[in-house]
Write a structure and sequence with these properties.
The protein has about 375 residues and is of the alpha+beta class. It folds into 3 domains: about 110 residues, Butyryl-Coa Dehydrogenase, subunit A, domain 1 (Orthogonal Bundle); about 110 residues, Butyryl-CoA Dehydrogenase, subunit A, domain 2 (Beta Barrel), CATH 2.40.110; about 140 residues, Butyryl-CoA Dehydrogenase, subunit A, domain 3 (Up-down Bundle). A hairpin with a 2-residue loop joins strand 9 and strand 10. Helix 1 runs parallel beside helix 4, helix 4 packs antiparallel against helix 5 and helix 5 packs antiparallel against helix 6. It is globular. The relative contact order is 0.11. Belongs to the acyl-CoA dehydrogenase family. GO terms for molecular function: acyl-CoA dehydrogenase activity; flavin adenine dinucleotide binding. Pfam families: Acyl-CoA_dh_1 (PF00441), Acyl-CoA_dh_M (PF02770), Acyl-CoA_dh_N (PF02771).
Length: about 375
């Protein structure tokens, strides 16, 4: 029989992160959010807990866990705050995982210990001002000049790319032309501080205000030829694999936000009175929260299945797209309903549900829009091109 209960090790991790989120993150994160300030001390504590090293082997400074362990941590963090959760998600699944999956042994031994410890953050440079999921629109180039790559171009909306502890960005760049006429795309590791690599000011964002998001530019930026990550010409395929895995992690984050909305509403409806009764006694409110619970439960099962297939080495592209789609929509729907339940207080940033509402929308856009997820699901069913 199927059993969706967590084993003792997973449950212990979940409770540990839940306690950390409630005791260390929840009391202070609202102030960071309002100041648009990156929470360095919280991130440092997460590093000391080993959260950034969860899915990596001990030989590279990791905790020897797996990707599902990372997802559980993301869910518990996002129940309290998505800025902290996305910092962990991007630092691991987008910053460190490409190096672990595709990097040379030298690259892994140089970078992974610091990334696993949370002493440095990695970033993932795919999106550009004029292109996201469409590889044909990629404009950043890297040409080989002797024993160096010369990188030119611009990247947009890159998480973790401009903090004081950002160590590297793995950049998708056009490195030539394939025999079929399409662009040859490769992945190039660019360390922070490399001449010609410029980090813009932080974006003014609707949500995720305590996380770091920047535009990056590269002007004759030179890095050693050995900074090629994986095989030349395989960069886009590598990024697609990274995105499939990342969608499972984003799904976990979305489930956490959706659950956080339920948590806050259950507390509030037991305290708030209207017309002589606690508002939780009214069926209209009960039905809203019941629907929120249904959405969250189903989304959690979806990401559990996708993660399970991934860990077993089975195809999981469709399941990852399903999990990402349903969890992001559950987060958005729950945030909207939670704000409605809180009424005027839900429109105030001092209440977590106001923050949740602002944070939820990006989940339907980042790491593949909801439209892209539907396209992927349809293709996996044999429809379309």
């Amino acid at each position: 029989m199927l059993d969706f209960r967590l084993d003792e090790e997973y449950e212990s991790l979940r409770k540990t992160v839940q306690e950390f989120a409630q005791e260390e993150v929840a009391p202070v994160i609202g102030d960071f959010y309002e100041r648009n300030e990156f929470p360095y001390e919280i991130v440092a504590k997460m590093g000391r807990m080993g959260l950034f090293g969860l899915p990596f082997p001990e030989e590279y400074g990791g905790m020897g866990g797996d990707y599902f362990a990372l997802c559980l941590a993301l869910e518990e963090l996002a129940r309290v705050d998505s800025s902290v959760a996305i910092t962990l998600e991007a630092g691991v699944s987008l910053g460190a995982v490409p190096l672990f999956r595709f990097g040379s042994e030298e690259q892994k031994r140089e970078w992974l210990p610091r990334l696993c410890a949370g002493e440095q953050l990695g970033a993932f440079g795919l999106t550009e001002p004029g292109s996201g999921s469409d590889a044909s629109g990629l404009r950043t180039t890297a040409r080989l000049d002797g024993d160096e790559w010369v990188v030119n171009g611009t990247k947009a909306f890159i998480t973790n790319s401009g903090t004081d502890i950002t160590g590297l960005v793995t950049v998708a760049a056009v490195t030539g032309q394939r025999e079929d006429g399409r662009k040859e795309i490769s992945a190039i590791l660019v360390p922070s501080g490399t001449p010609g690599f410029t980090v813009s000011k932080k974006y003014s964002k609707v949500g995720w205000n305590a996380s770091d998001t920047r535009e990056l530019s590269f002007e004759d930026c030179r890095v050693p030829a050995a900074n090629l990550v994986g095989q030349r010409g395989r960069g886009y395929a590598q990024f697609l694999q990274t995105l499939d895995e990342g969608r499972v992690a984003i799904a976990a984050l979305g489930v956490g936000l959706a659950q956080g909305c339920i948590d806050e509403c259950l507390r509030y409806v037991g305290e708030r009175e209207a017309f002589g009764h606690k508002i939780g006694e009214y069926q209209a409110i009960q039905f809203k929260i019941a629907d929120m619970e249904v959405r969250t439960h189903l989304a959690r099962l979806a990401y559990y299945e996708a993660a399970g297939r991934m860990l077993r080495g089975e195809p999981f592209k469709r399941e990852a797209a399903i999990a990402k789609l349903v969890s992001s929509e559950a987060a958005m729907d729950n945030a909207r309903e939670a704000t409605q339940i809180f009424g005027g207080y839900g429109f105030m940033n001092e209440y977590p549900v106001g923050r949740f509402y602002r944070d939820a929308k990006i989940l339907e856009i980042g790491e593949g829009t909801s439209e892209v997820q539907r396209m992927l699901i349809a293709r996996e069913l044999g429809l379309g091109r």
